[in-house]
């Protein structure tokens, strides 16, 4: 190595030291960078002294020592600065920490309000001897319509338009297909509920979604009458709301029940005064129901001369809205985290 090459090396060592100091965020990092420079290029410079003539050795050694000391003191200064910054930070933290303050409570999530509602209804009905069953969300036209006494050209199909799959199946419009599926599987007598997601090609507003939850109920036995149906429906609403709920029963047409009813409850959002959720009527359609049509029993291979039964299709999402005071159904599918911390925090919530 000659004088020029040594000068270049020493300049590079200083530059590398400055860059390493700039990049290091901890005292350990600074120590590691300093040791790397000392054991690497600085040691190389020291070894090169042997290659210089006796005249040149003095000035070469001096230059190397100066660089070594400069690098060492730069690293020391950087370490001191970092140390005092850390101490300062600690001091500040200690000054702002108040041990008398209550701890910050992290917000713990919980199940979705619709799932909470579903579990609540399941608890009520399993207590009454009902089994909880399921059914496919992708359904055949047969189970969604035909088996429910809604043949191909029946106008009732228009009220439940849906999303059709390329294989001719559809996304089920209601949980009612579970009725005939359950009859075929278990026969009579039968007590089942079937909660699940439903889909409709629907204009969305404060009370209509294209994806929502229903809970189907079906009871088949000997001598079952409308009186049983009404008693069960009242019990359900009283248990859910823990008070007597104002309801009204009006005739409702569904091809799979005869007679059929619409059981509405007084709107819990406006207390019956009229609001966008109840379309200003003061009532919310929540629980259509009726006596199972003999044709449906026949599709389920149950003899209508021996057995009768009732069925209902509870609007589970709407029931959750009424229970927790949610004014707009769109909140329910929006992933609004307030509802996962506490459904009560959705009370009065509207979409912006
Ligand atoms: C039916 O779906 C029938 N399958 C119910 C039934 C079952 C009747 C058994 C008789 C016997 P309907 O279309 O009214 O009926 O829907 C039932 C409930 O689901 C409604 O009262 C409502 O609470 C809810 N619902 C219906 N469409 C929507 C929607 N687009 N968004 C949110 N909830 C809905």
SSE blueprint:
Elements: H1 3-23, H2 27-47, H3 54-96, H4 113-126, E1 131-132, E2 138-139, H5 141-144, E3 170-171, H6 177-186, E4 190-199, E5 211-221, H7 226-241, E6 247-251, E7 257-266, E8 283-292, H8 294-299, E9 308-315, H9 316-324, H10 337-341
Parallel strand pairs: 1-4
Antiparallel strand pairs: 2-3, 4-5, 5-9, 6-7, 7-8, 8-9
Helix pairs in contact: 1-2, 1-3, 2-3, 4-9
The protein binds adenosine-5'-[phenylalaninyl-phosphate] (FA5).
Adenosine-5'-[phenylalaninyl-phosphate] binds at residues 174, 176, 200, 202, 208-209, 212, 214, 254, 257, 260, 285-286, 288-290, 311-313, 315, 317-318, 329.
The number of domains is: 2
Taking all residues together, what is the mean pLDDT? 90
| CATH class (first level) name of the largest domain | Alpha Beta
The CATH topology of the largest domain turns out to be BirA Bifunctional Protein, domain 2
Helix content bin: 40-55%
CATH H level, superfamily name of the largest domain: Bira Bifunctional Protein, Domain 2
Task: Sketch the topology as an H/E string, one letter per element.
Answer: HHHHEEHEHEEHEEEHEHH
Tell me the distance between the termini: 75 Å
DSSP, total strands: 9
**Number of helices, counting only DSSP H or I runs of 4 residues or more:** 10
Structural class: alpha+beta
Q: How many strands, what sense, and barrel or not for the largest sheet?
A: 7 strands, mixed
Which regions are unreliable across 5 or more consecutive residues at pLDDT < 50? none
- CATH architecture heading of the largest domain: 2-Layer Sandwich
The oligomerization state is single chain
Radius of gyration: 38 Å
Strand order of the largest sheet: 1-4-5-9-8-7-6
Shape: elongated
Bound molecules: adenosine-5'-[phenylalaninyl-phosphate]
Strand content: 15-25%
């Amino acid at each position: 190595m000659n004088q020029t090459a040594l000068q270049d090396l020493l300049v590079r060592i200083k530059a590398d030291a400055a860059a390493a100091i700039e990049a290091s965020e901890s005292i350990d990092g600074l120590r590691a960078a300093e040791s790397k420079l000392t054991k690497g290029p600085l040691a190389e410079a020291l070894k090169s002294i042997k290659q210089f003539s006796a005249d040149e050795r003095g000035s070469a050694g001096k230059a190397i020592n100066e660089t070594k000391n400069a690098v060492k003191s730069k690293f020391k200064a950087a370490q001191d600065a970092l140390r005092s910054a850390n101490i300062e930070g600690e001091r500040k933290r200690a000054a702002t920490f108040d041990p008398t303050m209550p701890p910050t409570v992290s917000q713990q999530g919980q199940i979705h309000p619709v799932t909470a509602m579903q579990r609540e209804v399941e608890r009520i009905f399993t207590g009454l001897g009902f089994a909880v069953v399921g059914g496919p969300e992708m359904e055949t036209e047969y189970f969604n319509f035909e088996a429910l006494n809604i043949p191909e050209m029946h106008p009732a199909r228009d009220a439940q338009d849906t999303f059709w799959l390329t294989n001719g199946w559809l996304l089920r419009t209601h949980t009612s297909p579970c009725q005939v599926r359950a009859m075929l599987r278990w026969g009579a007598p039968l007590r089942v509920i079937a909660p699940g997601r439903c889909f409709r090609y629907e204009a969305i507003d404060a009370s209509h979604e294209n994806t929502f939850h229903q809970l189907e109920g079906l009871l088949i036995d000997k001598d079952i009458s409308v009186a049983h149906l009404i008693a069960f429906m009242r019990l359900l609403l009283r248990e859910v709301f823990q008070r007597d709920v104002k309801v009204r029963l009006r005739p409702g047409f569904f091809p799979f029940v005869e007679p059929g009813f619409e059981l509405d409850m007084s709107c819990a959002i406006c207390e019956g005064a009229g609001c966008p959720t109840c379309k200003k009527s003061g009532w919310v359609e929540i629980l259509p129901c009726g006596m199972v049509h003999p044709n449906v029993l026949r599709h389920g291979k149950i003899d209508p001369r021996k057995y009768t039964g009732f069925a209902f299709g509870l609007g589970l999402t709407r029931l959750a809205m009424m229970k927790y005071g949610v004014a707009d159904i769109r909140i329910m599918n929006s992933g609004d985290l307030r509802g996962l911390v506490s459904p009560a925090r959705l009370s009065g919530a509207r979409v912006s």
